[in-house]
Automatic annotation (TrEMBL):
Descriptive protein name: N-acyl homoserine lactonase family protein
Organism annotation: Ferirhizobium litorale
Family affiliation: Belongs to the metallo-beta-lactamase superfamily.
SUPFAM superfamilies given in the database record: Metallo-hydrolase/oxidoreductase
UniProt keyword annotation of Metal-binding present: yes
Boundaries of every Metallo-beta-lactamase domain copy: 45-264
Length: 278
């Protein structure tokens, strides 16, 4: 039996220009639009996803941390962190307490943590997993380190000092419209596919359940609406690549019954509960 559970780890607010970039705008123009935008999206959930599989429990992303509220945690020299996004996480909303409430010890009961990318709202809960495998794409990890990573929405200076992720290259067989893949489980029912655009090296996690497939999209799209409309977000440094990724996801979902699960889509719980396919 394979199942997927969404776990909310606080809320994020962003500008409307971040959620949906303006058509015809390049990477730099989209960043300018975010800073100029006066309109904010209603608070969005920050989801991590627990996969129950015969080979163990797998967690996709770790959400964010309450330490965002501590003065100095976010670098003041980068105004995007402090002025363009608002993260609110209570201590009990972190992924560790959330798993505890489900009767799970995060450090012992999770076979592996899979990171779709290294933006801070996906890695903020890493501290809860010191004894676990941490799986990530090599490209995503490399571009997220140092000053370059800090400029693109990562906080490598806040990663646990013990972090040495299991880096993988997506050089497995093509799956539908995706040119490559990487297996996570021996039975091949959980695997990674490349979904770059929002961030270099971004991956999504595909879970083939019983009669339905779950597509854990990370931030490849912020929501079902943007996916259907093929609208890239305002964060991407390559809007054309983002749109190609959205088209690949749609084409994949057209080939098999697929539940799309982005990390910040308020519709995720309803979609999961009803088994609503794309």
């Amino acid at each position: 039996m394979i199942s997927v559970t969404a776990i909310e780890t606080g809320k994020a607010r962003m500008k409307t220009a971040q959620r949906t970039g303006r058509d015809g705008r390049g990477a730099f123009g989209r960043k300018i639009d975010i800073f100029r935008d006066k309109a904010w999206v209603d608070p969005l959930p920050i989801y991590a996803f627990l996969i129950e599989h015969p080979e163990g429990r797998f967690l996709v992303d770790t959400g964010d941390t309450w330490r965002n509220s501590v003065p100095g945690y976010l670098p003041r020299w980068n105004p995007f962190f402090t002025k363009e996004v608002i993260i609110k996480v209570a201590p009990g909303e972190e992924i560790g307490p959330r798993l505890n409430a489900m009767g799970l010890d995060p450090a012992r009961d999770i076979e592996a943590v899979i990171l779709t990318h290294f933006h801070h709202d996906h890695t903020g809960g890493l501290d809860h997993f010191p004894h676990n495998r941490i799986i990530a794409s090599r490209e995503s990890y490399e571009v997220s380190r140092g000053l370059k990573g800090m400029l693109m929405g990562c906080l490598p200076q806040r990663w646990p000092i013990w972090l040495k992720p299991e880096l993988v290259d997506l050089n497995g067989p093509a799956v539908g419209p995706f040119p490559a893949s990487h297996p996570i489980t021996r039975d091949g029912r959980i695997f990674l596919v490349p979904t770059p655009g929002h961030a270099p090296g971004h991956v999504s996690v595909v879970v083939r359940g019983d009669g339905v497939t779950y597509f854990l999209a990370g931030d490849a799209t912020y929501d079902d609406v943007n996916l259907r409309a093929e609208k890239a977000d305002g964060v991407t440094n390559n809007p054309d690549l983002s749109v190609r990724t959205l088209r690949a996801i749609k084409l994949f979902a057209a080939g098999e019954p697929t539940v799309i699960l982005p990390a910040h889509d308020p519709g995720v719980p309803q979609r999961l509960a009803a088994g609503m396919t794309f």
